[in-house]
């Protein structure tokens, strides 16, 4: 029976679900080359540059064990964290309140509420992600090469940083969550795609340089997200520009009541 207070056995079941992070996913992803200058300007201090200035734009739809159904638009930047090679999500628009909340509060993902759609007709795929009335990511792909089933494992690095209750600074030192994604796809297709990034003052995707686009991949299968490694980094104040620049809207852009303008 549902209740506002969970029993110990219910808590064990809930926490077990959260620790596994299991989802089904359908995704179109496009690799693109950006610049080292851009990567260094937006990557937080704890992340090192990758060997090549590459990034991935993707649109996907998910059904998860832990927070239901949702759609995503993502810009991931390749980077390094200490001895690990992986990526971090610069942009993550997502539909649904629980998918939004659990990703931000538990893992520190830079989630903002938005919409995404993915349409596939044979080898043709069209997908987009939008927020505040603007299509921020738009992908058109020709998926002519069938690669069959596939498996992959990769690292995603997310900063868990909580604004202080007073409004000034951060409540605690920043935590780097090293998330391991295990993918098992029953469908994998490769091709080429066009990629458009549009931006606004709220979501400045137009400032991301696209030097050239690479391969496009369509996958359909399942993934699991776990956090086998989590570490605290020092110097919380130096992370403030990245926290407020990437994880939140610019609070100065909201309409201010006239009584507060004087």
Pick out its properties.
262 residues; mainly beta; eleven-stranded mixed β-sheet; 4 helices
Secondary structure layout:
Elements: H1 8-20, E1 22-33, H2 36-42, E2 54-64, E3 68-81, E4 84-94, H3 97-107, E5 111-113, E6 115-121, E7 124-131, E8 134-146, E9 150-160, E10 174-197, E11 212-233, H4 240-246
Parallel strand pairs: 4-5
Antiparallel strand pairs: 1-2, 1-11, 2-3, 3-4, 6-7, 7-8, 8-10, 9-10, 10-11
Describe the overall structure.
The mean pLDDT is 97. The protein is globular, with a radius of gyration of 19 Å. It has helices spanning 8-20, 36-42, 97-107, 240-246; strands at 22-33, 54-64, 68-81, 84-94, 111-113, 115-121, 124-131, 134-146, 150-160, 174-197, 212-233. It is mostly beta strands and 262 residues long. The protein has four helices and eleven strands, in the order αβαβββαβββββββα. The longest helix has 13 residues, at 8-20. It has a domain at 22-157 and 182-225: Acetoacetate decarboxylase-like, CATH 2.40.400. Strands 1, 2, 3, 4, 5, 6, 7, 8, 9, 10 and 11 form an eleven-stranded mixed β-sheet that branches.
Kindly summarize this structure in a few lines.
The chain is mainly beta.
CATH class label of the domain at 22-157 and 182-225: Mainly Beta
- The coarse overall form would be globular
Helix content: 10-25%
Can you summarize the main beta sheet?
Answer: 11 strands, mixed
**H/E element string?**
HEHEEEHEEEEEEEH
Unreliable stretches (pLDDT < 50, length at least 5) are none
CATH topology of the domain at 22-157 and 182-225: Acetoacetate decarboxylase-like
DSSP, total strands: 11
User: Which architecture of the domain at 22-157 and 182-225 would the CATH scheme give at its second level?
Assistant: Beta Barrel
User: For the CA atoms, what is the radius of gyration?
Assistant: 19 Å
User: Number of helical segments?
Assistant: 4
CATH superfamily of the domain at 22-157 and 182-225: Acetoacetate decarboxylase-like
Mean pLDDT: 97
What is the structural class? mainly beta
**N-C termini distance:** 53 Å
């Amino acid at each position: 029976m549902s209740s506002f207070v969970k029993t110990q056995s219910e808590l064990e079941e809930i926490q077990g679900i959260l620790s596994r992070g299991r989802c089904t996913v359908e995704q179109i992803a496009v690799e693109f080359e950006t610049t080292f200058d851009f990567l260094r300007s937006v990557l937080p201090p704890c992340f090192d540059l990758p060997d090549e200035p590459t990034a991935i734009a993707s649109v996907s739809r998910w059904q998860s064990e832990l927070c239901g159904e949702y759609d995503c638009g993502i810009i991931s930047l390749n980077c390094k964290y200490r001895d690990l090679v992986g990526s971090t999500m610069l942009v993550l628009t997502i539909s649904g309140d629980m998918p939004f909340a659990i990703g931000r509060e538990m893992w520190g993902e830079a989630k903002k509420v938005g919409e995404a759609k993915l349409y596939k007709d044979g080898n043709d795929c069209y997908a987009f992600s939008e927020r505040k009335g603007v299509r921020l990511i738009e992908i058109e792909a020709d998926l002519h090469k069938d690669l069959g089933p596939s498996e992959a494992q990769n690292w995603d690095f997310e900063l868990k940083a909580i604004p202080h209750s007073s409004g000034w600074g951060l409540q605690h030192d920043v935590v780097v969550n090293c998330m391991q994604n295990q993918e098992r796809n029953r469908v994998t297709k490769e091709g080429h795609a066009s990629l458009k990034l549009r931006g606004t003052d709220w979501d400045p995707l137009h400032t991301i340089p696209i030097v050239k686009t690479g391969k496009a991949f369509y996958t359909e299968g399942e993934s699991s997200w776990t956090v086998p490694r989590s570490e605290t980094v020092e110097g919380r104040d130096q992370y403030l520009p990245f926290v407020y620049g990437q994880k939140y809207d610019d609070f100065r852009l909201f309409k201010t009541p006239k009584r507060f303008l004087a």
